[in-house]
Amino acid sequence: MIKIIFILFLLPLTFLSCQNNVSENYNYEKDTPAWLKTKIDSIVSTDRKYYFGTQVCRYKWEDSLLFEFKIPLSSCALCELYYYNGTKTNFPNDSTVQNYINNRTDKLLVWKWPEQ
């Protein structure tokens, strides 16, 4: 029953959380780092259930570009957040997490789960 409630009410909200609202043009093939393309290809081909509905957004934060995986079926927010070079973030404390959430800018949708 809880899964049905999640799917009917919370999943649609997740899709709205990362919209392309930046005026720049983003070219997936040209602008996406190779490590990220490899990870996305792996997600689509092997782990279909866990990553269903996932979106990848790019943000600017403290002079860095970060890629955030928004995984609707995961109970862990910000568990898959990577710097542009592919290094996974490791926030040292809650205040750094809040700083990221409050000060990230230039949200850009990079990739979303393929629609069937």
Describe the structure.
With 116 residues, the protein is an alpha+beta fold. The protein has one domain (18-112). It is built from four helices and four strands; from the N terminus they run αααβββαβ. It has helices spanning 2-16, 28-31, 34-46, 94-103, and strands at residues 55-61, 64-70, 81-83, 105-112. It has a four-stranded antiparallel beta sheet, with no helix packed on it. A hairpin with a 2-residue loop joins β1 and β2 (64-70). The protein is globular and about 35 Å long. Residues 1-17 and 19-23 have low confidence and may be disordered.
Low-pLDDT regions: 1-17, 19-23
Shape: globular
**How many whole angstroms does the radius of gyration measure?**
14 Å
Query: What separation lies between the terminal Cα atoms?
Result: 25 Å
Helix content: 25-40%
Return the domain count: 1
Q: Going across the major beta sheet, what is the strand order? A: 3-2-1-4
Helix vs. strand class: alpha+beta
Number of helical stretches of at least 4 residues: 4
Largest sheet: 4 strands, antiparallel
Order of H and E elements: HHHEEEHE
Number of strands: 4
